[in-house]
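yo, Putative membrane protein is done. seq:
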Amino acid sequence: MTHASAMRMGVALMAGGMFLFALNDTLGKWLVASHSVGQVLLIRSLTALIVLMPFLWLLGPRRLLAVERPGLQALRVAFAAAEVWCFYFAVRGLPLADVMTYWLAAPIYVAALAPLLLGERVGWMTWTAILLGFAGVLLALAPSGTVSLSGTTAAVIGSACFAGMMLTGRSLRGTPDTALVFWQLIGAGGLGALTAPWGWTWSTGFDWALLGLLGVVAMGAHLCVTRALKLGDAARMAPLQYTLLPWAMLLGWIAFGDVPRLPMLLAALIIVAAGLMLALQRSRE
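structure:
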């Protein structure tokens, strides 16, 4: 495969992965309306692990278990489990696009903390993007009578955990992607198992099918994005993550009749602009 064809394939996989993530989030919001967050998280993780089995077999138990820096791996797993639990809790009370806006702010947090935690040098353009992104987050937090306070709190905590997962992941570049995803699913499944007994609902056949589909779609999204980042330059792939927002708006409107508030739309535009500035700066480094 030539470099140009690899880039085209990477773009296609990244765009497809973002659509699958948006579909996964829509299914999750639908399911947590009638099932506990723990139950959805547990079954999603178990189904995704089944899909991952062939890749685990190819990787082998030695590379799966003998991971680098176990303490940092455990911290990343904790961040990942808390992040996905908070996401599903947040979408119970907030529109899908609103929650997605908070999550898209995670690269802003990463850029702000990277100089302190990773010793990375940050220029004026990056600091400008960071300040712009934080302004967007503050606008998104503007009070509104229609917003769930618990959902907003969960969304802010979850996006911070997502940033923590990204930061720890930067220090674990030597760990195979399959191993990272495996332990991430183990952590999420474990948290789901601990919280599932509170509010467990015996599902219909259709709901069981949707719960299983949730794990398959999530695993497909992870695999698409992982492969895309191997085929194409990360700085060029990063802007495609913002296609999540229009998909979230469209699917949220179709499935739930959600119409984004004007302050949230403005906040989303500011956060996306800040994220694109960060991606542009990284592409120049």
